[in-house]
Amino acid sequence: MPNNDSVHDAIKFEFNASIARQLPEPAMIGNEMAFDVTPVHVRHPDVAVMLRPVRREAGRKVQGAPDLAIEVVSDSDTAASLDDRVELYLNHGATAVWVAWPHSRRVDIHQKGKPTRHIREGVIQGEEPIPNVCIELAKLFGA
Predict the structure, then answer these.
(1) Domain extent listing, the chain
(2) What band does 56 get if pLDDT is binned at 50, 70 and 90?
(3) Which residue, 35, 43, 50, 55, shows the most beta carbons closer than 10 Å to its own?
(4) What are phi and psi of 124, to 5 degrees?
(5) Are 50 and 62 in contact (CB under 8 A)?
């Protein structure tokens, strides 16, 4: 469901630009790309990071989950729908899911089998699957 407000779009842009500048090829970063996460679940994460080249086929979506899925919370999201998306990505191949909360200016880091961490200030750095990437929260949320 498109949200398209300027805050949401600016956060997506900052994630995309920051990650793209810091990751070497063949990594690929996409905005709202379609993923056949399961045969019955198509998802479009706000930002997706794929560390290996993806198979491109006309008429087909990317198969499986991205290595990292990033969701930016919008007013239409519910806690239940966000939780379902996080679990779906993690249970079908994602190493991590980051959920950005614009109103509280925090990013939640989800990894399978680990407690959720809440980053409220400073930087996101050293996080799998992109440990060499550094993202400044002040810049992400518009200092």
Answers:
(1) 6-140
(2) confident
(3) 35
(4) -95, 120
(5) yes
List Cβ neighbours of 104 (8 Å cut-off, separation of 6 or more): 120
The phi and psi torsions of 117 (rounded to 5 degrees) equal -110, 145
Residue in the structure block whose two tokens are 């810091």: 22
What is the CATH number assigned to the segment(s) 6-140? 3.90.1570.10
Reading the block at residue 140, the tokens are 């992400």
What is the tens place of the pLDDT at every residue in 113-139? 999 999 999 999 999 999 999 999 999
Residue 100 has pLDDT above 70, yes or no: yes
| Residue 2, pLDDT score | 54
Strand residues in 44-141 grouped as ranges (E): 47-50, 62-63, 68-72, 96-101, 106-110, 117-119, 123-125, 134-136
